């Protein structure tokens, strides 16, 4: 049986961006993850040690957000790869990375990308 874990509205200050100024001053980012994984014996055994631990997923995401990249596509790809490599029972991770108030010359609430892998 498969189940889904969602980590929503994780907010980070990070230094991603294609412009040098963005990499110096930073910006606020939201990250959302949808993780599809095998249930295995997690529910039957009530065994947290067999589950995808969402505290660990958060920490992995925080670590990846601290690695400056030029594109948020690369950031999302890095998060997916790191989470999947830590938890082999994961089938798929959907990752949305949003830059809040991007410097586009006008009022824009956010720009985001979503990758699945």
List keywords for this structure.
single chain, 117 residues, GTP Cyclohydrolase I, domain 2, four-stranded antiparallel β-sheet, 4 helices
Structure characterization notes:
The chain is α+β, with helices and mostly antiparallel strands. It has one domain: GTP Cyclohydrolase I, domain 2. The chain is built from four helices and four strands; from the N terminus they run βαβαααββ. A four-stranded antiparallel beta sheet has the order 1-2-3-4. Helix 3 runs antiparallel to helix 4. It is elongated, with a radius of gyration of 16 Å. It starts with a strand and ends with a strand. 21% of the residues are buried. The mean pLDDT is 94.
Strands, helices and their partners?
Elements: E1 2-14, H1 20-25, E2 27-38, H2 42-45, H3 54-65, H4 72-86, E3 90-100, E4 110-116
Antiparallel strand pairs: 1-2, 2-3, 3-4
- Structural category: alpha+beta
- The CATH homologous superfamily is named GTP cyclohydrolase I, C-terminal domain/NADPH-dependent 7-cyano-7-deazaguanine reductase, N-terminal domain
CATH topology title: GTP Cyclohydrolase I, domain 2
Query: The biggest beta sheet, please?
Result: 4 strands, antiparallel
Sheet with the most strands: spatial strand order: 1-2-3-4
Quick one: overall form?
A: elongated
Give the tally of β-strands: 4
């Amino acid at each position: 049986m498969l189940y889904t874990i969602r980590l929503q509205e994780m907010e980070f200050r990070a230094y991603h961006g294609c412009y040098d100024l963005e990499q110096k001053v930073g910006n606020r980012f939201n990250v959302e993850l949808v993780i599809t994984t095998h249930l295995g014996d997690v529910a039957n055994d009530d065994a947290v040690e067999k589950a995808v631990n969402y505290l660990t997923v958060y920490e992995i995401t925080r670590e990846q957000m601290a690695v400056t990249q030029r594109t948020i596509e690369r950031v999302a790809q890095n998060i997916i790869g790191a989470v999947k490599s830590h938890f082999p029972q994961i089938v798929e991770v959907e990752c949305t990375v949003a830059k809040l108030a991007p410097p586009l010359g006008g009022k824009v609430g956010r720009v985001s990308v979503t990758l699945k892998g």
